[in-house]
Write a structure and sequence with these properties.
With 148 residues, the protein is α/β, with parallel strands linked by helices. It has helices at residues 11-21, 42-48, 60-69, 80-94, 112-125, and strands at 2-5, 26-31, 100-105, 130-137. It has a single domain, classed as Rossmann fold, CATH 3.40.50. The protein has a four-stranded parallel β-sheet, sandwiched between helices. Helix 3 (60-69) packs across helix 4 (80-94) and helix 4 (80-94) packs across helix 5. It is globular. The protein starts with a strand and ends in an 11-residue tail after the last strand.
């Protein structure tokens, strides 16, 4: 679900309320930060950081891609597809015990790599026990649209 609207309309408060009421799920949260919008995988790292200890259940190439993307291991190339697959595998692993809710605030400020990985995951998890909620400002006239 994507909530769009003008600044100050309550999108962040809605996500806060959703997190507070989400007692029967594992809630993971991140937010786009304008200052980090040029840093690849910054928002994805914030989202997955509480669950990174579970990457041992993710296939080895995907584990390595996540570790390289998050600066935990050296590598000459980050494969965005493997990072997205690793994210999908990790969220799937987490959902084996209870549903997972990903809350993403200020989507318009997400770095492109995190946004692309999360959109990949959202498309593959449509209708499953993993849920994503996001909030973004309504694009300004003449400004770029939030991809959806």
């Amino acid at each position: 679900m994507l909530v769009r609207g003008e600044p100050g309309m309550g999108r962040s408060a809605l996500l806060e309320d959703t997190a507070a009421r989400a007692t029967d799920v594992r809630a993971l949260r991140t937010a786009g930060l304008e200052a980090e919008s040029a840093l690849a995988f910054a928002a994805l790292h914030r989202l997955l950081r509480p669950a990174l200890d579970r990457t041992v259940a993710v296939p080895a190439p995907q584990q390595r891609a996540l570790r390289v993307a998050f600066g935990e291991e050296e590598g000459d190339r980050i494969d965005p597809f493997l990072v997205a697959l690793g994210t999908l595998s990790l969220l799937t692993e987490l959902a084996e015990n209870r549903p997972v809710l990903c809350l993403v605030d200020d989507l318009q400020w997400l770095d492109a790599a995190s946004r692309d990985a999360l959109l990949f995951v959202a498309r593959r998890l449509l209708g499953s026990a993993r849920h994503t909620r996001a909030a973004a400002r309504r694009p300004r006239a003449g400004g770029g649209a939030v991809p959806g």
